[in-house]
Design brief:
Chain lengths: 859, 243
């Protein structure tokens, strides 16, 4: 019979609960049961197993490392045995109550012991005096489980809670408590509530009370997809295949199922299980699943994966079943998590994800796996770390732990030849998927968000101004992944899928005829990298490096190829279009970003391929036009910059207007927050404050905060005094007068440079457009206020003393003298403080200006 | 004809005055600037913040046309710190917010109704004059704009009790020459405490009236006997007080 051929049943122990474990290299298989010996089977041989006698009885758990294994028994001893001489080495730890589970960290240095005690002990396997105690449990513990990097330990308690501890610090710290993921089970029950860390390290699964396997992503604690197992009894064991592509589950209804991770589909169901399986283990490399039941038997099930699915086992590490894989290029604004288990790093937009082989693998996952895999292996070092190249004792990299998983390794290898890092494309104002939601667009008009419903999405558009616009939502079968919103309409675009090419959809908010929304398709094979919507044009940058500009009614107006490529993003305001692309490589191995600004209506290029000034190793976070129509960028270091003189070719320069790291709220210390840029309007920076390590806003929608511009002039340490004074224990109002004076002149200096910058910005705008009267008035106001600030500065200098006369005179020369009376006033100020010499010089200056000798410009 | 009301302002009157305080709102629809008796209101343009008088903000809030942004001192963090400060320093009240520097030497310093002590830019570490009534009104009218309205309510209650206890304890030292430092006491607290404290002082004065009379007689005698002396000033002061 075929079945008998496949399954080799071994009577390993006397009937009763039996457990097993493979050594990491897969050569040996060790079983323990209720009798007082352990058996060591050798993979691939039918010989009688080696036996270690005189062990403890009633063993409940086993974990095997390289060259040793550890058992736990009901009498509370945890023993370490050597595999070299098959002898008991030492008793690692004793507990007062029966041991229920043990787990070995991936590096084999620590073993976690779960017992009926409330405390979980984590013991060093080399030095048993080193013990960590995890004490946050309120009920006894049923299972413990290390994650793939060995820094986190999941503890499943009998009251249905899961506690996640971080072991990276000296003192272990509980970082999360999860309820409702597992059932509360007695500690001696056969059913399992073990946390199953997926080998890719970004998610874990647990058996749920409804006998499913629920996957949860580990970074944001969001529930992801679930395996609906349909088991008739409680799940007694479940285990991911070494590469995470398969999941094996078994339950007390005497069935064993194999699931494909990517689709959560049943691949094979074995109903011929003789007794309840208590413990299962995949062979690290071969197509073998071994399991032990509660009747003392061991089954080594070779060829458990049917041949038609065998390819799945040979893949590299597969990603866990996320609703939306965070590494998948959502609109590029994706908070890409590294698959290399470097979990402490915050999701953030690393430029390297694009084009790394791993992400291609993710994206091309639909292709036949074998094909993708072959290329993938050849591309590489061929050193045999790719799984199953020779099949003999070679492990898949899934077992090498965090450092050796594909991304890390690939990078180390890739550094031997030069590959420039391009800046990733992103859609301004969008966030990556988190759970099943994301914002497609967030600006001052409103916000667009989408909810994934498996087969389709639901898009909701909400406005801040409830009266002017009506909120709306619609089902979206095309799965739009980018959106823009303004007062007139909403623009969406979707990626090509299958036979459908990429599409752009524009929906005006209101019309005086019937609704004139329109869709247009891009040529096949071209996908959208970014879209922008202005009052008069629609801009689409595509993967084929085209910039496509449409009118608001869908007439293609311009198509041209972008010089800087690949495209990064674009923005638009009225007739002006700003496109950003990757340019030549800079000193840090990254591409410089180049921007182009043009006026579409007049077909005039203002700035061609000029550099977006970023500091090394920082990335662009957002780009937008302010309500006055000036371009602004916000970079990953938290600096807001604007472009001055951008209408004169070659004159443009980036001017910082706000450095969020220098904000008094941050420099006060103690606060950990970051700012997610939204817009600049009315000379204020609008942003969303994100607490802690968050990088993107999430639901419910946080309120917008506004900050005044603050040009970085001095470090925040100067303002510390001030903070101190503002603290609670204000003893008295004694103030150091010199500090206040300094502060005053600082504020004046700052407002001088800020006003000058704003004046320059406005005057350069007005010199190129037809100014409205209110704009003109604003300009005059700014000009007058510059002079007023200078007058105040002058007053301070005069007050400071005669020796400040030179500086005072310099301040006077800086005056613009807009209304012709400022110099006169300056003379009066000097007179009031009794600075006669200064007053004389000011009068001389005024006279020279009057006759036009000195236009403020000296040789 | 005396009004049948206790002296000073009644709590509704204090609350009415408090409605002049400016608060920050996030409008949900457009509104042109209004020409109000108290000065023009800024035009509302969502989602830009604007400062409006409390009464208008509450009106818009009731009509669901705006959201009110609670001032920074009305957050759980600040209130907890303030409550700690109040309980630690048993003898003094937490200091009022600092006055901003006067815009120019010629203008007068601001006073509470025109001081922006309850907008989003207000200092987070001091209770302004109208803290109690403003907090109560916001909690009543715009509790959904708070992150944790119940906690805020409880903290406000705690603060009120602590400070009222201090005021009452202060009465113990109110003797003829006793005094009580009342820096930082809010408007509503004053109007609440006025009846009680005033009553206590009046009572004390009645009790001391005979002694006072005796002293005055003695003073007069002394003066008539030609002793000018030092008691002169005291006499004048007492005379003023008794009126």
């Amino acid at each position: 019979m075929a079945l008998q051929h496949q399954i080799r049943s071994r009577q390993a122990h006397t009937p009763g609960a039996t457990f097993l474990s493979y050594t990491p290299n897969g050569k040996k298989l060790i079983t323990v049961g209720i009798d007082n010996y352990c058996r060591i089977f050798t993979t691939g041989s039918d010989e009688e197993p080696a036996t270690i006698d005189d062990c403890q009885e009633n063993n409940t758990a086993i974990a095997a490392g390289n060259g040793f294994f550890i058992t736990g028994s009901e009498d509370g001893t945890v023993c370490k045995y050597s595999l070299e001489n098959n002898k008991l080495e030492e008793v690692l730890v004793r507990t007062s109550l029966p041991v229920r589970d043990i787990a070995l960290s991936p590096d084999g240095n620590w073993v976690a012991v779960a017992s009926d005690e409330l405390v979980v002990k984590v013991v060093n396997t080399q030095d048993m005096t080193k013990i960590l105690y995890l004490r946050d449990q309120t009920r006894s513990v049923k299972h413990v489980s290390f994650d793939t990097s060995g820094t986190y330990l999941a503890v499943s308690c009998t009251d249905g809670r899961i506690l996640i501890y971080s072991l990276s610090s000296e003192q272990p710290e509980m970082i999360k408590q999860l309820e409702g993921m597992i059932k509360s089970i007695d500690s001696d029950a056969e059913a399992s509530s073990k946390v199953l860390w997926h080998p890719d390290g970004r998610a874990f699964g647990t058996p749920t009370p409804s006998r499913d396997i629920q996957v949860m992503s580990w970074s944001d604690w969001e529930r992801q997809k679930a395996f609906t197992t349909g088991h008739g009894g409680d799940i007694t064991s479940a285990v991911w295949s070494p590469n995470g592509a398969l999941l094996a589950t078994t339950a007390s209804d005497l069935s064993l199922c194999l699931w494909e991770t990517k689709t959560q589909k049943l691949l094979k169901k074995y109903d011929d299980v003789r007794a309840t399986i208590l413990s299962m283990a995949w062979h690290p490399t071969e197509n073998i699943l071994s399991y032990t039941n509660n009747d003392g038997e061991l089954f080594i099930h070779t060829d458990i994966v049917p041949t038609e699915h065998q390819g799945l086992l040979q893949l590299s590490i597969q990603s866990a079943p996320f609703f939306h894989d965070p590494t998948e290029g959502t609109s590029g604004n994706a908070g890409a998590k590294l698959a290399n288990g470097a979990k402490e790093t915050i999701p953030h937009r690393p430029g390297r994800r694009q084009r790394t082989p791993d992400s291609i693998n993710d994206i091309l996952g639909d292709l036949s796996e074998d094909e993708a895999m072959d290329d993938f292996v050849i591309d590489d070092d061929g050193a045999g770390y790719a799984p199953n190249v020779n099949g003999h004792g070679k492990r898949t990299n899934g077992h090498l732990g965090a450092l050796a998983s594909p991304n890390g390794k690939r990078r180390a290898f890739g550094s031997s030849f030069f590959r420039p890092e391009t800046h990733e494309a992103f859609q301004p104002g969008s966030t990556p998927w988190r759970g099943n939601r994301r914002y497609l667009c967030l600006n001052l008009t409103g916000f667009v968000w989408t909810v994934s419903q498996e087969t389709h999405n639901t898009i909701t558009v909400e406005f801040y101004d409830r009266e002017f616009h009506r909120d709306f939502h619609f089902t979206d079968p095309f799965q739009y992944d980018k959106a823009c919103l303004n007062e007139n309409g909403a623009l969406f675009s979707c990626e090509p899928s299958g036979d459908n090419p990429a599409m752009v959809y524009y929906r005006p908010h209101e019309t005086w005829t019937t609704r004139t929304d329109w869709r247009t398709n891009l040529p096949a094979g071209e996908s959208v990298t970014a879209i922008a919507l202005s009052d008069s044009y629609i801009v689409v940058t595509t993967s084929a490096n085209y910039v496509r500009i449409y009118t608001l009614f869908g007439i293609p107006w311009r198509v041209y190829r972008q010089k800087a490529s690949p495209a990064v993003t674009c923005a638009a305001w009225r007739d002006y279009v700003l496109t950003i692309g990757n340019g030549p490589v800079g000193g840090d191995g990254k591409c410089h970003l180049l921007y182009t600004i043009e006026n579409v209506k007049r077909d005039e290029v203002f700035q061609a391929e000029d550099i977006v000034a970023l500091t090394p190793n920082s990335t662009l976070s957002n780009v937008f036009f302010s309500d006055a129509g000036d371009p602004y960028i916000y970079d990953s270091t938290g600096v807001l910059l604007t472009l001055l003189h951008w209408r004169s070719p070659g004159q443009a320069r980036w001017v910082p207007l706000l450095d969020t790291r220098l904000l008094p709220r941050l420099s006060g210390g103690g606060k950990e927050e970051s700012y997610w840029p939204v817009a600049v309007a009315q000379r204020k920076f609008h942003c969303i404050i994100l607490k802690g390590a968050d990088r993107y806003p999430y639901f419910p929608r946080p309120i917008l905060s506004e900050f005044e511009f603050q040009i970085p002039l001095s470090s925040p340490s100067d303002s510390k005094n001030k903070n101190k004074r503002e603290e609670f224990d204000i003893s008295d109002d004694e103030e150091d007068t010199t500090t206040t004076k300094k502060d005053d002149s600082r504020t004046l200096e700052h407002s001088l440079i800020l006003t000058t910058t704003l004046f320059t910005q406005l005057s350069s705008t007005l010199s190129h457009t037809r100014p409205t009267s209110s704009q003109r008035q604003k300009l005059t106001e700014l000009e007058v206020s510059i002079d007023r600030i200078l007058l105040q500065l002058l007053g301070q200098e005069c007050m400071a003393g005669e020796e400040h006369g030179m500086k005072a005179l310099e301040i006077v020369t800086l005056m613009r003298d807009a209304n012709g009376r400022m110099l006169e006033l300056a003379g009066k100020v000097a007179g009031r403080y009794g600075r006669e010499v200064l007053g004389e010089k000011i009068r001389e200056l005024a006279e020279r200006r009057l006759v036009g000798l000195d236009g403020g410009e000296e040789e | 004809m005396a009004l049948p009301l206790p002296p000073g302002l009644t709590p509704p009157e204090v609350a009415f005055l408090c409605e002049m305080e400016l608060v920050t709102v996030i409008p949900r629809q457009r509104l042109e600037g209004l020409e109000l008796l108290g000065g023009p209101s800024p035009p509302l343009n969502p989602p830009h913040r604007a400062s409006l008088p409390l009464w208008l903000a509450l009106l818009l809030k009731r009509q669901r046309r705006a959201n009110i942004l609670p001032p920074p001192w009305l957050t759980t963090l600040s209130l907890t710190a303030l409550l700690d400060h109040e309980t630690e320093h048993a003898e003094s009240f937490s200091p009022p917010p600092r006055l901003p520097p006067a815009p120019s030497p010629t203008t007068l310093p601001f006073t509470p109704p025109f001081l922006q002590s309850s907008t989003a830019e207000a200092p987070p570490d001091a209770l302004p004059y109208h803290w109690l009534e403003l907090g109560e009104m916001l909690l009543e009218g715009a509790s959904d704009d708070f992150e944790e309205p119940d906690v805020v309510r409880r903290l406000l209650r705690g603060l009120r009790e602590v400070r009222m206890a201090k005021l009452r304890r202060g009465v113990e030292v109110l003797d003829a020459a006793g005094g009580l430092q009342m820096n930082g006491v809010g408007g509503m607290e004053l109007s609440e405490g006025r009846a009680f404290i005033g009553g206590v002082i009046d009572g004390l004065r009645k009790i001391n009236a005979s002694r006072e009379q005796a002293r005055r007689d003695r003073d007069r005698e002394e003066r008539e006997n030609g002793f000018g002396g030092t008691a002169d000033d005291d006499y004048d002061d007492d005379e003023m007080d008794m009126r």
